[in-house]
Design goal:
- This protein is of the alpha+beta class.
- It has a single domain, classed as 2-Layer Sandwich (Alpha-Beta Plaits), CATH 3.30.70.
- About 35% of the residues lie in helices and about 30% in strands.
- The protein is built from three helices and six strands, in the order βαββαβαββ.
- The two termini are about 15 Å apart.
Length: about 100
Amino acid sequence: MWVIAMFDLPVDTPKERKAYARFRKSLLADGFTMAQYSVYARHCASIENAEIHVTRMGKCVPDDGEVRFMTITDKQWERIRIFVGKTRRSAPPSPAQLELF
């Protein structure tokens, strides 16, 4: 399973920028990696494990802005098509099932 976090958080004031940075650091500390700006992904061994991470990160969401968490299977992740300019790149390989983070 993969958990994908997508967010739009305000960064107009110093307080909002600090909340944005705190949330982003929480994602990184929980094992998420940046897929692109404001989109982070994390591999999980099971749907139960994915729910634990979604719940944990949901508690870190700032008061302002919007965060969405989506779970997809490894097979769905493999079907991601990445385009950079006009060129297509393949999706990054899935981690091994027993890989420790």
